[in-house]
Amino acid sequence: MKLAEALAERAEATRRLEQLRARIVTNARYQEGEVPPEDAAELLGQAAEVLDTLETLIRRINRTNATVEFGSGTLTDALARRDVLRMRHSVITAAADAAAGSDDYGSGRQLRSELRVLSALPVKELRAQADGLARDIREVDTGIQQANWTVDLLD
Question: Hey, how many other C-beta atoms are within 10 angstroms of the C-beta on 95?
Fold first, then answer.
């Protein structure tokens, strides 16, 4: 099995677990004299099976990511890099939006006597930095996706 297939399987198991959780909560209590639509205990058993599968998948995925060489490090290093690049992009974009007046406060004046709102940050430079970060994210993500489809999942 390829790493990408295991990642898709993990995502499906996570979705299935969330659906089971919602069904368990819905059927955990019922009124006296009525029968719940589903057996909550049976659903708990199904959830336990999904969790066991999920644990195995997560262990194998993590083991694979930690051993696969990627650039000057491992696939785990690349995933950390991508995550931090995304966070950095988010902060820079939020700063640029706020400095440009894209927030709820507005930046215009209605009367000449009102105080002007000025930008404390260089919007143009922040936008250029955000564009560079977006490019870096795409490059790292493309490499990760390529590795996911070429690397075999470890046991």
Answer: 17
Confidence of residue 117 (pLDDT cuts 50, 70, 90): confident
Give the global pTM: 0.81
Measure Cα distances from 146 to 10, 13, 71, 82, 152 in Å: 18, 23, 13, 14, 12
Widest CA span in the chain: 72
Distance (Å, whole) CA 134 – CA 98: 19
User: In one letter, which amino acid is 2?
Assistant: K
Tell me, what DSSP letter sits at residue 74? E
Rounded to the nearest 10 degrees, how much is the dihedral formed by the CA atoms of 86, 91, 95, 101?
70
Q: How far is CA 118 from the centre of its chain?
A: 34
List Cβ neighbours of 101 (8 Å cut-off, separation of 6 or more).
Answer: 107, 108, 117, 119
**AA identity, residue 67:** T
Measured over the CA atoms of residue 50, residue 56, residue 60 and residue 62, the dihedral's sign is positive
